[in-house]
Hints:
Helices cover 27% and strands 27% of the residues. It is α+β, with helices and mostly antiparallel strands and 571 residues long. The chain has 3 domains: 204 residues, Bira Bifunctional Protein, Domain 2 (BirA Bifunctional Protein, domain 2), CATH 3.30.930; 128 residues, YbaK/aminoacyl-tRNA synthetase-associated domain (YbaK protein); 96 residues, Rossmann fold. Strands 3, 7, 8, 9, 10, 11, 12, 21 and 24 form a 9-stranded mixed sheet that branches. It has a 5-stranded mixed sheet with strand order 16-14-15-17-20, with helices on one face. A hairpin with a 5-residue loop joins strand 28 and strand 29. The two termini are 34 Å apart. 43% of the residues are buried. The structure holds one RNA strand of 77 nucleotides.
Amino acid sequence: xxxxxxxxxxxxxxxxxxxxxxxxxxxxxxxxxxxxxxxxxxxxxxxxxxxxxxxxxxxxxxxxxxxxxxxxxxxxxxxxxxxxxxxxxxxxxxxxxxxxxxxxxxxxxxxxxxxxxxxxxxxxxxxxxxxxxxxxxxxxxxxxxxxxxxxxxxxxxxxxxxxxxxxxxxxxxxxxxxxxxxxxxxxxxxxxxxxxxxxxxxxxxxxxxxxxxxxxxxxxxxxxxxxxxxxxxxxxxxxxxxxxxxxxxxxxxxxxxxxxxxxxxxxxxxxxxxxxxxxxxxxxxxxxxxxxxxxxxxxxxxxxxxxxxxxxxxxxxxxxxxxxxxxxxxxxxxxxxxxxxxxxxxxxxxxxxxxxxxxxxxxxxxxxxxxxxxxxxxxxxxxxxxxxxxxxxxxxxxxxxxxxxxxxxxxxxxxxxxxxxxxxxxxxxxxxxxxxxxxxxxxxxxxxxxxxxxxxxxxxxxxxxxxxxxxxxxxxxxxxxxxxxxxxxxxxxxxxxxxxxxxxxxxxxxxxxxxxxxxxxxxxxxxxxxxxxxxxxxxxxxxxxxxxxxxxxxxxxxxxxxxxxxxxxxx
RNA sequence: CGGGGUGUGGCGCAGCCCGGUAGCGCACCUGCUUUGGGAGCAGGGGGUCGCUGGUUCAAAUCCAGUCACCCCGACCA
Length: 571
C-alpha cells in the first residue's frame, strides 16, 4: 500500500472531545471517524485491524465446530414481543415502521432470531448440539454513548449461540466457548481476566465476563491480587462484620425536619452512619418490595433482582407514598405495610438502630429487628467496597474499572420456551432446547489492545492486530537511489507475503517517522542515503524503540524476528 | 432523563463581557530553497460564525427558542 494515496487521516493535534486514551489514539491514528454520537466509520487501517480480530475469532470458533451465519438486522417487532424483550429493552431498541405501518426494530442482539430458526429446523435430539455464530452489526440506542468505540449505538458483535438437549450438553458447550474465548483474547494479546457476573436482561443461570482492566472501562470489578478472585461489583461478595449489636431500647419517634439523606440524619441526630437502616422500596416483577441495607452501604440492584426473580426498578414517589404513608427519606420497615422485607445479612437480629418513622419529618430510634418487624429473609444485598476482605482468601479486595470484552451466558430454556423451540428426545418426549449465548465486542478488542500498549508516541500494535506488518520509509524522495532501494525492499517484502506500507510521500523525515510511531506499525524500515552508502538500512522495532542497521539481504529475516517478538503467546 | 460545558474554514483555537461585517496556528494549493524526528520564504484558495426567530441603522457578539456534540450523574431515602 502506498501511503501517499492511502486514507489514514492522522492528526497532529488531539481532538478536543476525546478523553479515553483509546478514543484519542484511534482518532489521531486515523482508524475511525465519527459520524454521529456513538456511530463511527472504520477507515481502511482501522478496518484492517478489525478484520484481523474477526479472523482470529473465526479460526477459534471453527475449532469448536461453530457454524458462521449472517442474520438480519431489520426485524419485525413481533418476534421480540414473543419473549417480552420489546418491553424489557424499551427505549434502547431502535424502532421504526415500514411503509405499510408495520412495526420493526433494528436488532440489538439475536437470540430471538436464532430461536425462530431453531424452532423450524430442530426436530429431534439427533439434530443437537448446534453452535451457530455471527459477526455483525447490532443496534442499541444507548442513553449515553461514550469513550469512542467503547459504548456505541451501532457496533460489531461476535455472538455465538449453543443449542443442546440438556444442562449437561450446555455445560460442555459453555466450557468449549469459555476455552475458545480465552484463546481468542490471548491471541489478541490482551491481559484479560474472567469474572462472575450478573446475567441482567439476558436471564439464565450462570454467566461470566471477560474483562480488561482500564481507566476507560465502565464496569467495576472487585479483584483479589492474592488468590485471583474477581467478580463484577454487581454480584461480588466480601467478608464483612455484621452491624454491631446495640442496646435494646424503646422504639421512639424523633423529629427530623427536612433530614432525608443518611448523611443528614446521621449528622442531625449525632448517630454514626452505620447505625442507620436504609429502607428502600423497589418495584419487582410481582409488585413492591422492601430492601434494607446499612446506612454505610449501597444496595446492589443486581442482587435484589436475583432474589426477587425478575427485573427491579426504584419505586416511584407516588407508589411509595401510597403504600407507606410517607415520602422517600422517612421510611422504615416497621408499621403496617404488606411488603416483603429483604434485609441485608449484616442485620441479623440487630437492635438499637435508626430509620425513618413512616411519617414525614420524623425518624425512629431504638429499632429492633424481629421485635419491631419480621424480615422475610436475610440475604446479601450490599455492594462490596474497596479494601474489604476477599471472600475466598481473606486478603484485601481492590475495585478496578474494566472494559467488558465478552460475556458468556447459560441461558437455559428462557427463550426456547417463550418461542416454542422444542425437540423430541430419545423417549419421544417434547422438550425445550437448552441454550447458551456468548458475545464479544469486536471494537472493544481494538480499544483494549491500544490502551494496553500505547506509549507517549502513539499506538504499538502487536503482530496479531496490526493493520500492516511493516512500513518502508524512504527518507528523501528526491534521491533516486533511496527511492529505488525503498521500492525494492517494498516489493520484496510484499512478494514474501507481508502486509506492507511504503511512505512514498514527499515529506520531511520527521513527519514520516512521527506518523509511523503514531500509527503503531511494529516494524519501520528507514532507507536513507547515509546508510545506503554502507549498503545498510535501519530497522526500528516500534515496541522496544530499538534500531538496528542491517544488510539489504537480511531485511526479511529481521522483519520476521521483530514480528515474532511481538506475537502474543498462547498459554 | 438531571446537571455542567462546547458549537467560528478539514483540525486546534481567539474574537463575544463592551454590537460596526472575521482572525491565528496547523493542514491544503503554486513556486523556490530544504531533506534523520511534525522545515523556511513568497504568493494563494477555503468560513452566510450550529439552526430559527427577535432587538438594532447594524448581530459571531445582546435576547428567546431549538438542534448537535462532549463530560459527570442517573436508586442512595
